[in-house]
């Protein structure tokens, strides 16, 4: 367990270093662009760069960045000089709410859909088609269709804004539908594989009802490995919120990241990317630990 | 199966020959014809600036498919040296798996956005950013398939008769991995279409107004109330291409097995 946490920590450290190195190849940056636009002279630009420590050697900057990062300090925005922690903090809640709700809908939906697609019932084609669509159709297209149908034509929900809960329904529905795809696919594969297992045949031979066989003997072992897939979907979800926030014109981290990308405001980009990497790695490590705890087969 | 081949060929054919099929200049604005519904003159209607959506979608497909193709090359070429790793657990393999774990720890879209921040907006930047984000997923599959092939008896045989390392890789490892690697490259291609169009949908492409499926979709988002056809055309084509590629690949190697 300690080894798992340690390797997670090292992964985060290396990923943060990689992001740091990539972002320092920057030819022009937000600061220079903005100051030049404001009519600042070259000496003023050099002065500000000096104040922010951008003229120090790369290794000094790296050390400072790592020391600050270890204390949870993400630095200052080049565009407005505000603390990245504060900027992210202001925008965090809407995104966490969107992603959290989407995940909360996607997990039961994915499990149900995958099970439906695997078991020999009338509805299994429906499940299979839903899985295929959820995996191969891009989020921005389902989102656009949802807007055309439910916002523009039927006018049931607003297409944009983040004022009330009704504006949340379409984004959550769209995001959760695609997050569920991979969960459902793995569920389907697992359930199908478990059906072939010897202990299932034995259970049937013992004359147990098909309901008991399905719930206790097939679903229980088949659904456990899905925990790790759910954690992996966090990566998709993080990217998905960027697209969903843009599509439904919502405020949030995704929007902030997009603006900062366009403005080459790299401390903000760096902060968000490192934060999402930490979350992603943490979620996966936790899933790994949970899986070991809940699956008795792992303890043998 | 046949059907997917047909659709794939049709999409490639109409986008490649856009120059001859397109009834209008995709960039030509006619403000009098703004937001026209589909008609004989404009088969798929017009957008806010009166540009012909059909022509834009044809030219846009050229760009989207070219970008995806370039991205796939970026994604798969760095994996070639992996074929030389003979065994799991060697120094080279440990280095590789550490590197892959680090790359896979950064959510793919985040990695792409970091690259766009560095390189600026533009089409080749999108291709590169999409490709780099897919290097690690592809490399992981290459590692798996290649290490599996090294365990085969015929590789031991080739070694026993004194085959050199490059000879073993080119004559035994590569040919036996190739079907799986090509199939997964196909899967990468459909991912590349989705992801590069996503970046351009987010407004990170080149000059505004340049036709590209993701960009046209984003333009359509703004007029979705009055002219849903602007977004429907590129959206349907993206989905059709992705599903056709996936089904086409699936007939050779089961995609599920790859993942």
What would you say this structure looks like, in words?
The complex is a heterodimer of chains A (300) and B (259). Chain A has 300 residues and is mainly α. Chain A folds into two domains: 69 residues, no CATH class; 175 residues, MetI-like fold, CATH 1.10.3720.10. Helices cover 76% and strands 0% of the residues of chain A. In chain A, helix 5 runs antiparallel to helix 6 and helix 7 packs across helix 11. By secondary structure, chain B is mainly α. Chain B has twelve helices and no strands. In chain B, helix 3 packs across helix 6, helix 4 runs antiparallel to helix 7 and helix 9 packs antiparallel against helix 11. The radius of gyration of chain B is 22 Å and the shape is elongated. The mean pLDDT of chain B is 88. At the A-B interface, helix 1, helix 7, helix 11, helix 12 and helix 13 of A face helix 4, helix 5, helix 9, helix 10 and helix 11 of B.
SSE diagram, text form:
The complex is a heterodimer of chains A (300) and B (259).
Chain A: H1 2-23, H2 30-37, H3 42-51, H4 58-70, H5 84-118, H6 124-136, H7 139-153, H8 166-195, H9 198-205, H10 210-223, H11 226-247, H12 253-262, H13 266-294
Chain B: H1 2-16, H2 18-21, H3 53-76, H4 91-105, H5 108-119, H6 123-133, H7 135-150, H8 153-160, H9 165-201, H10 213-222, H11 229-250, H12 255-258
Helix pairs in contact in B: 1-3, 1-11, 3-6, 3-9, 3-11, 4-7, 5-6, 6-9, 7-9, 8-9, 9-10, 9-11, 10-11
